[in-house]
Amino acid sequence: MKKLFLHIGILFVFSISYSQNEVSILQKDKSEFKVRFEDDFETLRIKNAETGQIQLINNLEASITGKRSSLDINDYNFDGFTDFASFHTDDGMGVYTIYEIFIFNQKTKQFDRLNFPSGFNPKCDMFCDVKIDKIKKTLTSSCRGGARNHSDVWKYDKNKKLILIKTQSY
C-alpha cells in the first residue's frame, strides 16, 4: 500500500512540474493549429492543420539558466479568437514569470508577437505574471524592483492598440 501511495505521489509531482511543450488551438472559425517548442525553447513551430502551412517564430525569450518554458492558451486581446503565450520563471530568484504573447491574426491565419508598446512609462519592462480580466478586458503585468512590487494595467483602445491605463508601486 505504501508503494502505491509513493508511486501516485511521484506521478502527481511529475505531472505538476511537467512543462507543456505543445498545445492545440481550435479557433472559433474552426481553424486548428498545433504549437510546439523547438531548439531548446528558442523557436516556436506553429502548424495550420487545415493548410499544412508552418509558421516559425524565432528568438523567443528563453531562460539562460535552463528553466523550461511552457505554453498557455487564452484570448489575450479579447477578440474572441484564441491566442497563446510562451512563459518561464525569471532567471534570478524565480519570483515572477516572464510572458511572450502571440496574437492570432484573422487575416493571415498566423500569430503575431505582441510587442511591448513604446511611448509609455510602465513599471515593468516586460510582461510578467500576466493576469487577464475578461470583464474589464485588461491585462495586468506585475513585477518586482528592489523592495517594491509594481503593477501595470494594459487595455486595448478602439484601434486595437495596447495602451497603458494605470501603473502603481507598493
Written overview of the protein:
- The chain is mainly beta and 170 residues long.
- It has one domain: Beta Barrel (Lipocalin).
- Helices cover 9% and strands 45% of the residues.
- The chain contains 1 helix and 13 strands.
- The strands form 3 sheets. Strands 5, 6, 7, 8 and 9 form a 5-stranded antiparallel β-sheet that branches.
- Strand 2 and strand 3 form a beta hairpin.
- The radius of gyration is 18 Å and the shape is globular.
- It starts with a helix and ends with a strand.
Give the topology.
Elements: H1 2-17, E1 22-26, E2 32-38, E3 43-48, E4 54-57, E5 70-74, E6 83-89, E7 97-105, E8 110-113, E9 127-128, E10 131-133, E11 138-145, E12 148-156, E13 162-169
Antiparallel strand pairs: 1-2, 2-3, 3-4, 5-6, 6-7, 7-8, 7-9, 10-11, 11-12, 12-13
**What general form does the structure show?**
globular
Q: Strand-and-helix sequence, N→C? A: HEEEEEEEEEEEEE
* CATH structural fold name: Lipocalin
Q: Strand content of the residues, in percent?
A: over 45%
Mean pLDDT: 85
Distance between the termini: 50 Å
Task: Provide the domain count.
Answer: 1
Which structural category do the helix and sheet elements fall into?
A: mainly beta
Q: Helical residue percent?
A: under 10%
CATH arch. level architecture: Beta Barrel
What's the quick description here?
Helices cover 9% and strands 45% of the residues.
Key descriptive features of the protein:
single chain; 170 residues; mainly beta; Lipocalin; 5-stranded antiparallel sheet; 1 helix; 45% strand; disordered N terminus; XAC2610_dom
